[in-house]
């Protein structure tokens, strides 16, 4: 789990594919929930794990929502998970803004370049016709 998170995430992905992830996550004690939430909160921001771990986080939240408030440790881990996902959302929003700016710049550059090439072609045709 610590040194090979790929394996842990792959197992979770396979359990989800088989439709047994929810039952595998359910029925955990406080210590096991804490370990699960710690793993998910740390790794959910890694792009290669995000799709699977967002699903896992959603299921964990659905399953263990009734026990929120009964354990300070679990509550703290839920807050860490919420904070990690919130930071990732902010980061993704910033990246989308930058991508929009870059698209605008590239579109302007491409338009100027195309106009410049058209001017050169038309100038070359005019010169050819005059001679």
Quick overview:
The protein has 5 helices and no strands.
Poorly predicted residue ranges: none
Give the mean pLDDT.
86
Q: Sheet bearing the most strands, described?
A: none
Report the β-strand fraction as a percent range.
under 5%
Total beta strand runs = 0
> What's the number of structural domains?
1
| Fraction of residues in H or I helices | over 70%
Briefly note the structural class of the backbone.
mainly alpha
SSE order in H/E notation? HHHHH
Note the gap between the termini. Answer: 77 Å
Give Rg in angstroms: 26 Å
Q: How many helices in DSSP terms?
A: 5
Shape: elongated
Pfam families: UTP15_C (PF09384)
Subcellular location: Nucleus
Protein name: UTP15 protein
GO cellular component, one term: nucleolus
Features:
131 residues, mainly alpha, 82% helix, elongated, UTP15 protein, rRNA processing, U3_snoRNA-assocProt_15_C, WD repeat, nucleus
Helix and strand arrangement:
Blueprint: H1 5-18, H2 21-25, H3 30-43, H4 50-64, H5 72-130
Helix pairs in contact: 3-4, 3-5
Can you give a write-up of this model?
This protein has helices at residues 5-18, 21-25, 30-43, 50-64, 72-130. It is mainly α and 131 residues long. The protein has one domain (5-128). The longest helix is centred in the last third of the chain and has 59 residues, at 72-130. The mean pLDDT is 86.
